[in-house]
Amino acid sequence: MSHIALLPSSGMGHLTPFIRLAALLTVHNLKITIITPYPTLSLAESQVLFNFFSTFPQIRQEKLHLLPLDNFSGNSEEDPFYCHIEVIRRSSHLLSSLLSSLSPPLAALITDMSLTASVIPITEALNIPNYIFFSSSAKMLTLFISFHTKANTNLYEMDALQIPTLEPIPKSWIPPPLLQDIDNQLKTYITENGKEMTKSDGILVNTLESIEQESLAALNGGKVILGLPSVTAIGLLPPCFNKCQSLAWLDTQPIGSVLYVSFGSRTAMSREQLKELGDGLMRSGYRFLWVVKDKKVDREDDKDLEDIIGNELTESVKERGLVVKHWLNQENILSHPAVGGFLSHCGWNSLTEAMWLGVRVLAWPQHGDQKINASLVERIGLGIWESSWGWGGEDIVKGQQIAEKVSELMGNELLRMKAVSVREKARAGMELGGTSMKMKALAKLIETWKKDN
Ligand code: UDP
Ligand code: UDP
Fold this sequence. Notes:
Bound molecules: uridine-5'-diphosphate
Helix content: 40-55%
Strand content: 15-25%
Low-confidence stretches: none
Mean pLDDT: 93
Distance between the termini: 9 Å
Radius of gyration: 21 Å
Largest sheet: 7 strands, parallel
């Protein structure tokens, strides 16, 4: 039996697509191992891993024990998830003995994009094919792999970034740290990993040809960078476990009436912006389920809701909404019949879930790749994006503006129907055979792994 290992890195946005992929691989008569960096930074990651391995006992877990965190002098100004990735990177030499001890020997390793530069030399030395799983959009991949070629260009002076054969990416969509002339975590991360991707055996992206045809064609046609291995759209990966958390409040709401509001697993808005958001939701007149996050890392989120949004707002939102401050299983929420819209930061996993479940989206990108992802929302008919709102923390978006956009989304029947048709498209990559689901593009790759083994 061919043996495939998967190596995710830090943060739910990186872990989620890996466990979805691992779950899909189980129907292909393969031995699957997931190498999990240990400990995880967030509680959500450790809980999801625990549930996952209980649901899929046939998948083996190997822990990559990280070097102690205090060996790494992270700067408190820096993003904790990037610091954690740095710890994994610095611990990656420990992978050599781990990988070579796996039995039977690996037919392939699937590595998270953030570990490309540190893991490729190791798999090269061990002669193990290494596939990079890119956990954002193919459009973001075009920027990721070409960024290092712009090292000598002052991006700040440009209006847009031109990637051959593609529509230019406006400067305002580019993650701001990439425009700075000083070094920073994001620049180093993208430069180093983007450069090494040509040395991998293939790149996997959780997307579909029908959604990102131009970017995929440019990547595979050698237009973005020469020498890139083949980029396979393996998606959209379906949600993988339906542990239904009951949410009594949602069960009592009319069909399609609730706006779900969440900014993902690692984005904390300022208190001032949270208050405007609460005000906007109330003004809109629509029902809502709002997940409030006060800290990037969930383990540090210890304040009560009243302390964050104030007593008055906490009381008034009860009229029409439910506000929580804990982890909700987003797949379950988005698939609930009462949910009719999603105010999202446009993390790629959140968007793929909205596509898979056919829920219209009001895009409010906050940082990183999110504006590039948001640009697809309107293009594919999934929803609307008010691009004048800018990056998270740049300007405060007022309650009144938020209320108007929420009404525009929730009151638009055509948008609801368009989002439903995106769902049909989203599922086109899937092949139903008996009780198991197979992804067509993935099936081809698996044949290669079995043949070469
Ligand atoms: N998620 C969830 N519950 C939450 C917040 C997030 O289940 O309260 C999941 C969400 O469904 C998605 C992942 O965590 O699969 C977050 O990834 P995404 O790429 O959307 O954004 P990030 O959190 O990385 O910014
Ligand atoms: N940020 C955040 N969560 C993240 C990444 C960044 O809250 O997952 C914060 C980051 O610390 C900074 C702001 O968002 O204060 C802007 O992020 P940035 O433009 O640096 O882009 P990113 O590093 O997210 O790609």
